[in-house]
């Protein structure tokens, strides 16, 4: 069995463009992909902080240093330029891998440039007695 897990997060990025006529996906500045470990064509979930909309698509690399965060295709109906979003990278993980996981969290400024990169560690679950 594998479990869908969050492996990386770009926290509170700003949408720079929403292009309804593009084929689909989210274009993310290559520097942000590199900092987060998100790979081009990896599935990601995008959450709009303003309205709670969630969208699942794949990442594609934008120009390095551009701050690109563009929602392409149908999500352009739910995400607009200036919206603040959270991008979560997904991966299927074997339960035995959870203890060693340390998802990357990339914090950005208002221009989507990296300010801080942190790693989260799993908190052990303790058995409780009934």
Describe this structure in a few short sentences.
This protein is mainly β and 130 residues long. It has one domain: Barwin-like endoglucanases (Beta Barrel), CATH 2.40.40. It has 1 helix and 9 strands; from the N terminus they run E-E-E-H-E-E-E-E-E-E.
Main sheet?
A: 9 strands, mixed
| CATH-scheme architecture | Beta Barrel
| Fraction in helix | under 10%
Measured on Cα atoms, how large is the radius of gyration? 16 Å
Number of strands: 9
CATH T-level fold name:
Barwin-like endoglucanases
Report on this structure.
The protein has one helix at about 30-35, and strands at about 5-15, 15-20, 25-30, 45-50, 55-60, 70, 85-95, 105-110, 115-120. By secondary structure, the protein is mostly beta strands. Strands 2-6-3-5-4-7-1-8-9 form a nine-stranded mixed β-sheet. It is globular and about 50 Å long.
Keywords:
130 residues, mainly beta, Barwin-like endoglucanases, 9-stranded mixed β-sheet, 46% strand, globular
């Amino acid at each position: 069995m594998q479990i869908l897990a969050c492996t990386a997060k770009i926290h509170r990025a700003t949408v720079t463009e929403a292009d309804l006529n593009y084929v689909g996906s989210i274009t993310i500045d290559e520097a942000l992909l590199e900092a987060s470990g998100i790979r081009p064509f990896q599935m990601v979930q995008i959450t709009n902080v303003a309205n709670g909309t969630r969208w699942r698509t794949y990442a594609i690399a934008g120009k390095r240093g551009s701050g690109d965060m563009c929602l392409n295709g149908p999500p352009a109906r739910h995400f607009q330029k200036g919206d603040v979003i959270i991008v979560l990278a997904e991966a299927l993980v074997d339960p035995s891998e959870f203890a060693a996981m340390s998802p990357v969290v990339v914090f950005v400024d208002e221009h989507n440039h990296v300010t801080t990169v942190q790693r989260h560690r799993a908190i052990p679950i303790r058995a409780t007695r009934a």
